[in-house]
Amino acid sequence: MYRDILPRRTRVARQSTVFRPWAMSIACILALTSCVRATAGEYDGFTEPSRRVSVASVETGTIKSMEVQEGSVVQKGQVLARLDDDLFLALVAIAEESTRAQGALKSAQAELAMRSDRWEKICELREQGHARQEEVDRARMDVEVAEARVLSANELTELKRLELEKARIQLARRTVFAPLTGIVATLRKDEGEFVAPNDPYVVEIVTLDPLLATFSIPSSDALPLRKGDAVSVYLDDAEKIVAGEIDVVAPVTDAESGTVRVKVRIANRDGVYRGGERCTLQLKPVMETAGPRP
């Protein structure tokens, strides 16, 4: 069914593998002189994930549990792994209990109320001539000292609240979350393994929708290509031609090969196409039917 549209390399592979020496030499020369072109308007390439992220732990420690497996579909924010957290759970509990302790603040507030009441009474007695000015001044100073103690208790309460927040953040950092939606491609660590500063990676996640196909195209053939152009891509593994859209046309030509890197975006909603497979870009059908560019 696909005989007329299969890339030339596939059709040649199906022929006899017996060659004469001179035929082998000619084949090698042709391969070297046109390594990127399969046939007129066809170019070999490979598929790859549109995103590949190695997820690292920001903390060191032993893996307590792995919450995913290779091939698991994960959503952004989903838990991937947990590090040992017994110490940090205890620190959070201590910080919470310390925050609930209000004894010092209530004592300072009660002392301030008592000193303020005494100062008011002494001021009244002073107006009636039954108290000396020294007693009024001393009572006023006692009120200021009590106010300072209340302020100190409030500051201590705020510091305890911040310590609790710090402990909770440290506990949360013992959990590794997915930074994006995708598929778990590789588990870099397993339960019981140690996550060190020089090897912090735990999981590798890839995004296969969309899938990207990368090709190296001669500069002259890549000149008319633009981002968003519709093209056809033959996937070797699926033995199928699929529609694609040019996503990237490199602005720089490789000086050694004289080729331009072109990436094609392929819809892969159901995840039926794999990354790392050989494929062929077919420009000729699209270029023949496309109208002139402005």
What is the global morphology? elongated
Strand content: 25-35%
Total number of strands: 12
SSE succession: HHEEEEHHHEEEEHEEEEH
The end-to-end span amounts to 37 Å
- Helix % is 25-40%
Main sheet characteristics: 6 strands, antiparallel, barrel
Ranges where pLDDT stays below 50 over 5 or more residues in a row are 1-38, 285-294
* Structural class computed from helices and strand pairing: alpha+beta
Radius of gyration: 36 Å
Q: Output the number of helix runs.
A: 7
Strand sequence of the main sheet, in spatial order? Answer: 1-8-11-10-9-12
How would you sum up this structure, described in words?
There is one protein chain. With 294 residues, the chain is of the alpha+beta class. Among the domains are: 61-84 and 174-196, OB fold (Dihydrolipoamide Acetyltransferase, E2P); 86-172. Helix content is 37%, strand content 29%. The protein is built from 7 helices and 12 strands. The protein has helices at 8-13, 21-33, 86-100, 103-127, 133-172, 219-222, 284-289, and strands at residues 42-56, 61-66, 73-74, 79-83, 175-177, 182-187, 194-195, 201-218, 230-235, 240-249, 259-266, 278-282. It has a 6-stranded antiparallel barrel. A 4-stranded antiparallel β-sheet has the order 5-4-2-7, with no helix packed on it. Strand 9 and strand 10 form a beta hairpin. The longest helix has 40 residues, at 133-172. The protein is elongated, with a radius of gyration of 36 Å. Mean pLDDT is 84; it is low at 1-38 and 285-294.
